[in-house]
Design goal:
The structure holds two protein chains of two kinds. Chain A is α+β, with helices and mostly antiparallel strands. Helix content of chain A is about 45%, strand content about 10%. The radius of gyration of chain A is 26 Å and the shape is elongated. Chain B is mostly helical. Chain B folds into two domains: about 425 residues, Formate dehydrogenase/DMSO reductase fold (Up-down Bundle), CATH 1.20.1630.10; about 30 residues, no CATH class. Classes of the chains: A alpha+beta, B mainly alpha. At the A-B interface, helix 1, strand 2, helix 3 and helix 4 of A face helix 1, helix 6, helix 7, helix 8 and helix 16 of B.
Chain lengths: ~180, ~500
């Protein structure tokens, strides 16, 4: 068997790429991943990417911020160092709405973006796993695992008939690092 | 998705012929990948001179103390807080464009959001420098934070709007930065994959290993949407809290409930004016006329008329309430603004903010680049004077006529302000050189649905309502980047 690890179908147009995905799937050829220079709506369902749960996470991060601020302010103003301001209540709730709101947003945003980076493995200095350098420029790339799908000629043909400008047989998975 | 046709009645968001994905990348990245031209260098050197002036003035302030400014015992707040509120206001457009317009699905935001957000971040940095430099003892700046301390666990005053402001500004800055940087990741990856050598290494670090796979993109869009959802109330809250710095005091002219909405409208007004001031130049110098089109300019001008009119109504409401409240102090504060020794500032504010933006009702002016640019600067000047009028005229004649006085700035006041503009432009010009000034991925998203070439193709196919096509062609007349001859034949 050959050393080919991945077959890449490189398309110049997102709609042609969608045709390519459909043709491959109709022929029971599993797609490893798709790399595009912009988000293509609707392909996540086709490729079995589940709905994001980041919204749920964001909610809980936000609530954590709310609770942190209210607890912190309560401890500071009513327990630790109560100040008598004209006999008013120590824990003057309406005064603390603006800052509680701000901390809710702050926790929510940092928690959300942090979870996003963690779940998609994004962090400073991470070696980019790129299969085709033009996938961030003007090419829409379908990657197929060559070991799992044996009929390479058929894959080539399907990709070309869908409008692929180029079909590459890569012997290395990622070309972006030595 | 990409294949959906948009109604022909909508004006194109990308003009020009033969625009391809590759060409979008090429054109937007050209200032990043090539040596800067003369215009950039001239601008950069000027900005750097300004930034130097800022360092000198702020250094002088730190060395000699706040006494270096023109403040006196009656006017204890003047150019410092004016500059602070002005910069925070300018910092509102970026997040408004990226968050509010995203929630409203306004696709025209796609080509202006990136530089507007960058502008927001730099404007908030300028605002923050004011906060620190006006403290007098900047090395104690951490006292504004509720940190456990050695003073018998004395806490900050959580009832004070100044403390709320600290929370609001720092949250706003860090959330805007996250929003901006996350949006930049795919574009940094684009630069990375085209670069070689050291540049590649640097952009690799900053691209966080972005690959553009399906899951990353899908989560990316989810994150953008949620961030937009939480940033929208955040933007409104920030200037609301800034206005509370004044509104919760008992100074006549400040102590009004109209301040929060009035300040928010004013912030959006000045923010959009600054976006126009910058982008009209950027579009010309970097040759981005096909992406930042007349439609974008006109849309921003429409927002300026709206928010400018809200600000105008707020000015008049303030006057009415000053009389209707029956409070003689309140009434005097406004009589003093209109006819007192600072009347020139009041009328300059009225002219720049209320009268001159009304010129934008005329389509000829709204779609004229030179006129728009001049008006945007007039608005910036007017909004600076608005803050000056609110702050100084309310303070300089207080309850005791014996302490009435005037305010005049020293060279240090002027230096800090002019210098902060220099800092802002230095940062903005550096941004243009190292990062794409337009969100590349987002512009690519609308290429197949909203570009002029797609619409022209649809017209040529001929299955459209003739009246609609005529209306569309008429709407193209104002575009300076559209070749009108193409349409004369149809």
């Amino acid at each position: 068997m050959s050393n080919i690890k991945y077959i890449l179908g490189s398309f110049g147009d997102p709609d042609e790429m969608l045709t390519g995905i459909k043709k491959l799937q109709d022929n029971n050829i599993s797609i490893y991943d798709v790399y595009t220079p912009m988000p293509i709506h609707g392909i996540e369902a086709k490729l079995g990417v589940k709905r994001s749960r980041l919204d749920i996470a964001a909610f809980f991060f936000g609530i954590t911020g709310t609770i942190t601020m209210l607890t912190g302010v309560y401890l500071a103003t009513a327990v630790d160092w109560p100040v008598n301001i004209g006999g008013k209540t120590h824990f003057a709730f309406p005064d603390f709405v603006p800052i509680t709101f701000e901390l809710t947003i702050l926790f929510c945003a940092f928690g959300l973006v942090g979870s996003y980076y963690a779940s998609t493995h994004l962090f400073p200095g991470r070696a980019p796993r790129v299969m085709d350098l033009r996938a961030t420029d003007d090419r829409f790339v379908i990657a197929i695992d060559a070991k799992q799908n044996a009929e390479h000629d058929k894959i080539d043909e399907l990709l070309k008939s869908a409008g692929a400008l180029e079909v590459k047989h890569n012997e290395r998975k990622y070309i972006s690092y030595e | 998705m990409a294949g959906h046709n948009e109604s022909i009645l909508r004006e194109p968001l990308i003009t020009g012929k033969d625009i391809t994905y590759a060409r979008i990348t090429e054109e937007i990245l050209s200032p990043v990948e090539n040596k800067p031209n003369k215009a950039w260098w001239i601008g950069f050197i000027l900005a750097l001179c300004g930034a130097t002036l800022w360092i000198v003035s702020v250094g002088y302030t730190f060395w000699f103390g706040i006494g270096a400014w023109g403040l006196n015992k009656t006017v204890g707040w003047a150019w410092d807080i004016t500059g602070f509120v002005w910069w925070v206001g300018i910092g509102h457009a970026g997040t408004l464009i990226s968050a509010v317009l995203l929630l409203f699905r306004q696709n025209w935001r796609n080509s202006i959001n990136r530089s507007a957000e960058a502008m927001t971040i730099f404007a908030v940095i300028c605002a923050a420098t004011y906060v620190v430099s006006h403290m007098g003892r900047p090395w104690l700046a951490y006292w504004v934070l509720p940190l456990p301390n050695q003073f018998g666990s004395l806490w900050v005053n959580f009832n004070s709007p100044l403390v709320w402001d600290m929370f609001a500004i720092s949250t706003y800055f860090s959330v805007s930065l996250l929003f901006w940087y996350t949006g930049l990741l795919p574009d940094i990856a684009t630069i990375r994959d085209r670069a070689t050598g050291v540049r590649k290494k640097v952009y690799t670090i900053f691209s966080f290993g972005w690959s553009g796979s399906v899951k990353t993109w899908q989560r990316f869009e989810a994150v953008s949407l949620i961030l937009a959802g939480i940033s929208t109330p955040l933007v409104l809250s920030v200037h609301t809290i800034v206005s509370m710095d004044f509104a919760t005091s008992v100074i006549p002219g400040w102590h009004t409930t109209i301040f929060p909405p009035y300040f928010v409208a004013g912030a959006i007004f000045s923010g959009f004016a600054m976006v126009l001031t910058l982008l009209l130049v950027v579009r010309k110098v970097l040759g981005l006329e096909n992406y930042i089109t007349m439609f974008h300019i006109e849309s921003m001008n429409k927002i300026i008329i709206l928010t400018g009119s809200i600000v105008g109504v707020a000015y008049l409401t303030e006057l009415f309430i000053a009389w209707y409240s029956g409070s003689q102090y309140e009434l005097y504060a406004f009589q003093n603004r209109i006819a007192g020794p600072f009347a020139w500032a009041y009328w300059l504010m009225m002219t720049c903010n209320v009268i001159s933006p009304q010129l934008l009702w005329f389509k000829k002016i709204r779609t004229n680049i030179a006129a728009t640019w001049v008006l945007s600067i007039v608005v910036n000047i007017g909004m600076w004077f608005e803050r000056f009028v609110i702050i100084v005229t309310s303070l300089h004649r207080d309850y005791l006529p014996s302490s009435w006085t005037m305010f005049s700035p020293t060279w240090v006041d002027v230096g800090v302000f002019v210098g902060s503009i220099g800092v802002f432009f230095t940062l903005f010009l550096l941004f243009l050189r190292v990062l794409p000034s337009i969100a590349i991925a987002e512009v690519k998203m609308i290429l197949k649905s909203s570009s002029e070439q797609t619409k022209l193709k649809l017209i040529k196919e001929g299955n459209l309502d003739k009246e609609h096509v005529q209306e569309y062609i008429d709407s193209l007349e104002k575009f300076d980047s559209v070749k009108q001859e193409e349409y004369a034949k149809i």
